[in-house]
DNA sequence: GTAGGGTTAG
């Protein structure tokens, strides 16, 4: 580039370089021009000038390596430059590098200032090392910064988030003054450690709150899988007349996505529009994801199309949404459109695309894309991509091929990989491969109950009753339990939860009577009912009997009671739907002429006119 | 002599 005609360099001559650097530089090319100019004019050897380069690079993740290279050229770095590096590392992928720069600064005899330590403490929180945290705390005391307000905040958050609540409280209580951030740090720490109750207690007690406090609470609940609580908090926020910002709404909307609470999610979306919040990529992606996960793919596409800025995660959210619903061709269309838009796919993008292929049964296409990952896009396949491939082959009934694929993988297969093959054995009723895989899985994950159940079922099938007894005894001895299954249904903006054998719902008697009515009607239509031993169940709920209905049956019965007209009944289940319930639901969609949209842990099932969109493979 | 900090997000 001709340097004379470059507008940045023209300004550089006219103005103070530091101002130009701060205001004009927006990308690495510009930065390099300025850097080169500084080297040519020897201006770079001014510590203040070179420090501006570092400071510019440090808060942009892609520029960190550049900053470190620049740093290595500086003869006499001061504490400001070290602070910048420590800060940059503490928020990077490898926070432990900040310790390296701290030690280096000490070695050349620089004294830390009041800015240095908070970032080191932050790095300890991030790498989750209490041991390191205590060492840094020692340094803080040694250099006399333990009474610094910011240092105290960082320490409170660090100790609380790493579970040393005594230490966190000790520092918190001894702080000379408090502001909203002090309380918020403590709350954030509780949430990171997973103690949502203590976080809430403090939240209720604190004198005043700001939007960071609200979003800390809401996303804290969400991070700890208390999505119902997150939504509840949003209600309280509105009652108190607070207006949420984008960050708060990301927490609220992603909670709705997890709950499958479409009506609440729609309201939150309206709230965003009504209050004129900025529909940035993050919030936009959360909304797209919410509609897809709540079963309204069309709306997800509409919102997606209306977004001004779309990055790779945003495209991936849509593709993965389409994949979940089994719209494989549509997912692939968006994938190629994404590439046409110059967005480079990432590892998670390929997960979504490969899932689309496996849910849609596009074996050849999936193999093709898998091959292209590294070759054309430079993305190294990870375990989950191999898992998708096992799924893909398994679905097609190529069980031996899938098994061979696992054995030939360049990385060591983990339990979910074998689990994918096991799922395929369940669908294709392959006892031979199933037994082999089941044994491997039990060895790998002795605490996972599903694998014992599976293997014992396989033995029962092959009349190896001795082995069945062994399996059952092993399960008892190890005390393995299944995760409790639950189903959610949203009625009039309220989410109802059902678990197996749970009698706590206020309308439970009516619901159970409703189920009996449903059962009779679908039996007339040809439904045979519980066929006894459910083979090959991996992570389904406990075996059901007349008193213990699987949770989705209760949810469906409740839906039929409450939902009128053409509105589909939407259910969200935490486990995978079992074969029995799947068949029953198909009958229900036919007999009651109703559309049922069930999201299980694996994908969506759209039941319509006696058939399911998954084509009975899930 | 200058500059920089803590708590929230897909």
TrEMBL record:
Q: Which UniProt keywords apply?
A: Repeat
Q: Which InterPro entries match?
A: DYW_dom, E_motif, PPR_At4g14850-like_plant, PPR_rpt, TPR-like_helical_dom_sf
UniProt-listed GO biological process terms: RNA modification
Residues of the DYW domain = 526-618
User: Where does the record place its PPR repeats?
Assistant: 179-209, 210-244, 311-345, 346-381
Q: Which PROSITE patterns match?
A: PPR
MF terms from GO for this chain are: mRNA binding; zinc ion binding
Similarity field: Belongs to the PPR family. PCMP-H subfamily.
Provide the protein name: Pentatricopeptide repeat-containing protein At5g06540
Species per Swiss-Prot/TrEMBL record:
Cicer arietinum (Chickpea)
Organismal lineage: Eukaryota, Viridiplantae, Streptophyta, Embryophyta, Tracheophyta
Gene that encodes the chain: LOC101513466
């Amino acid at each position: 580039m001709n340097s004379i005609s470059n507008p940045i360099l023209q300004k550089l001559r006219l103005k103070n370089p530091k101002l130009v650097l701060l205001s004009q530089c927006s990308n690495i090319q510009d930065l390099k021009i300025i850097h080169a100019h500084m080297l040519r004019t020897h201006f770079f050897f001014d510590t203040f000038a070179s420090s501006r380069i570092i400071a510019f690079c440090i808060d942009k993740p892609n520029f960190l390596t550049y900053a470190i290279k620049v740093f290595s050229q500086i003869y006499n770095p001061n504490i400001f430059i070290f602070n910048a590096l420590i800060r940059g590392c503490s928020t990077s992928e490898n926070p432990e590098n900040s310790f390296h720069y701290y030690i280096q600064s000490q070695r050349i005899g620089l004294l830390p200032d009041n800015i240095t330590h908070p970032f080191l403490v932050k790095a300890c929180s991030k790498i989750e090392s209490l041991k390191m945290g205590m060492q840094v705390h020692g340094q803080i005391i040694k250099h006399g910064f333990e009474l610094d307000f910011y240092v105290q905040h960082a320490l409170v958050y660090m100790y609380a988030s790493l579970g040393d609540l005594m230490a966190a409280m000790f520092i918190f209580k001894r702080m000379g003054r408090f502001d909203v951030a002090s309380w918020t740090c403590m709350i954030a720490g509780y949430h990171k450690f997973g103690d949502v109750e203590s976080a809430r207690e403090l939240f209720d007690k604190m004198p005043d709150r700001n939007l960071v406090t609200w979003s800390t609470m809401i996303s804290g609940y969400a991070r700890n899988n208390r999505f119902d609580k997150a939504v509840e908090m949003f209600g309280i926020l509105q009652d108190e007349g607070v207006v949420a910002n984008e960050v708060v709404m990301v927490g609220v909307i992603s909670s709705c996505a997890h709950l499958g609470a479409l009506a609440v999610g729609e309201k939150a979306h309206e709230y965003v529009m009504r209050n004129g919040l900025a529909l940035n990529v993050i919030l936009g992606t959360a909304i797209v994801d919410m509609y897809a996960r709540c079963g309204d793919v069309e709306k997800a596409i509409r919102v997606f199309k209306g977004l001004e800025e779309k990055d790779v995660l945003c495209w991936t959210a849509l593709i993965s949404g389409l994949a979940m619903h089994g719209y494989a061709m549509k997912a692939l269309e968006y994938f190629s459109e994404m590439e046409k838009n110059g967005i480079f796919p990432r590892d998670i993008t390929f997960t979504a695309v490969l899932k689309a292929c496996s849910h849609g049964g596009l074996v050849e296409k999936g193999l093709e894309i898998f091959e292209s990952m590294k070759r054309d896009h430079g993305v190294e396949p990870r375990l989950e991509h191999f898992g998708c491939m096992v799924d893909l082959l398994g679905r097609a009934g190529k069980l031996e091929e899938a098994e061979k694929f696992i054995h030939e993988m360049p990385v060591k297969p983990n339990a979910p990989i074998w689990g994918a093959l096991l799922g395929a054995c369940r669908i294709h009723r392959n006892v031979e491969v199933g037994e082999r895989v089941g044994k491997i899985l039990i060895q790998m994950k002795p605490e996972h109950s599903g694998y014992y159940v599976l293997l014992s079922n396989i033995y029962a099938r092959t009349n190896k009753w001795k082995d069945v007894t062994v399996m059952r005894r092993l399960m008892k001895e190890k005390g393995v339990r299944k995760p409790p299954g639950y189903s959610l249904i949203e009625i009039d903006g309220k989410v109802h939860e059902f678990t197996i054998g749970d009698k706590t719902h206020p309308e439970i008697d009516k619901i159970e009577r409703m189920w009996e009515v449903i059962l009779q009607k679908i039996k007339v239509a040809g439904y045979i009912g519980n066929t006894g031993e459910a083979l090959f169940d991996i992570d389904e709920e406990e075996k059901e009997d007349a008193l213990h209905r699987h949770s989705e049956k209760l949810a469906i019965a409740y839906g039929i009671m409450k939902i009128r007209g053409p509105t589909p009944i939407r259910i969200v289940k935490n486990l995978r739907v079992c074969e029995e319930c799947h068949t029953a639901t198909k009958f229900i969609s036919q007999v009651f002429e109703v559309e049922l949209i069930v999201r299980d842990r694996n994908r969506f099932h759209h039941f319509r006119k006696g058939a399911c969109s998954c084509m009975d493979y899930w």
